[in-house]
Amino acid sequence: MGRIGLAWERIEWALERIGWACERIAWACERIGLAWGRIAWALKRIGWAWKRIE
């Protein structure tokens, strides 16, 4: 059981690390998405302003 136990602990540790990495990636993607949303909103505002000028 000793070796199997150690191997299992390593697998659990690796899975936990992968879980944390996925959470961080998801958080980063959410932040990028929010930034893109703001850029799109700004471009729409510029478009409306441009139409008013014309």
Plain-language structure description:
With 54 residues, this protein is mainly alpha-helical. It is built from one helix and no strands. The chain is rod-shaped, with a radius of gyration of 23 Å. The termini are far apart.
Topology:
Elements: H1 2-53
Q: Which blocks of ≥5 consecutive residues have pLDDT under 50? A: none
* Helicity level: over 70%
Tell me, what's the shape?
rod-shaped
Which structural category fits the helices and strands? mainly alpha
Order of helices and strands: H
Please give the oligomerization state of what you see.
single chain
What can be said about the biggest beta sheet? none
Rg estimate, integer Å: 23 Å
Termini Cα gap: 78 Å
Mean pLDDT: 91
Number of helices: 1
Content of β-strand: under 5%
Count of distinct strands: 0
Features:
54 residues; 1 helix
A few lines on this structure:
The chain is an all-alpha fold and 54 residues long. The protein has one helix at residues 2-53.
